[in-house]
Amino acid sequence: MTPAPLAARLGIPSGPLFFPVTAYGPDGSVDLETYRLHVRGGVEAGAAAVFACCGTGEFHALTPEEFEACVRVAVEAADGRVPVVAGAGYGTGLAVRWAALAERAGADGLLAMPPYLVRAGQAGLVRHYRELAAATALPVIVYQRDNALFTPESVVELARTEGIIGLKDGHGDLDHMQRIVSAVRTEDPGGFLYFNGLPTAEQTQLAYRALGITLYSSAVFCFVPEIALACHRALHTGDRGTVDRLLDGFYRPFVELRDQGRGYAVSLVKAGVRLRGLDVGEVRPPLDEPAGDHVKQLAQLIERGLALIEEAK
């Protein structure tokens, strides 16, 4: 049976969206077998999709050969059970090349990262993503953050572009997102998807749900899927008591810890995966490892979060 199109598969929020870390061996090279275990474990735990080699997966640090190998392993590990979306980025020409590599590796779609370095106008940004979408058979999700921020009118243009199926928001301006959602709904009603892409998205997901945005990325799922799944279920069923307990007892303290170091949105998550027993190695430069005391605090937070979900049973 042919799988449903990516937009249809993602449109049903059956679980958190899993952004696996990329595993490295002791010599710093990509460890594909450990990565396979990590991805397979996430799929079996209940992820709704795998977003391979994206922000948490250190897209910026991978060579084209490593990228293609990791995406292929993610596709193999998912084994058709959930879709696999791969990162693509830099300038237009390179983004098209990453898209070709992802397509060759068997990915189901692309998460288009912001263009490298430059701050472009709206017309240039729209052209960049339209050219990427035109160059690949893979559906594209545009990632709004940093130097890729869109007016509502630009998002309407993107939503009308064949091959672009959604917008992931990593900016966090809820008033602006409401304007975007309203403009697209008015000008191009259809199945355009929206994702909460803020770091530790659970922290803001109650607010995003009020805008009708139910899809979100979960870095926490990488190292404590039990907590991420409990939060997802509570959000989906309207169990506000459980959501509040997890926010107060785990997510808010985790965000406060994450904010104590640059790059902790990746390196602290990777430390968490190691704490749970899977040696995925350290981050690559220019990121660096979290301080030892912060790792100890993370271990305590994990225990606290797991105790909270046990108490709720």
UniProtKB/TrEMBL annotation:
The keyword Chloroplast does not apply. Its EC number is 4.2.1.41. Pathway: Carbohydrate acid metabolism; D-glucarate degradation; 2,5-dioxopentanoate from D-glucarate: step 2/2. It holds the Pfam family DHDPS. It catalyses: 5-dehydro-4-deoxy-D-glucarate + H(+) = 2,5-dioxopentanoate + CO2 + H2O. The keyword Protein biosynthesis does not apply. InterPro entries: Aldolase_TIM, DapA-like, Dehydro-deoxyglucarate_dehyd. Keywords: Lyase. Belongs to the DapA family. This is Probable 5-dehydro-4-deoxyglucarate dehydratase.
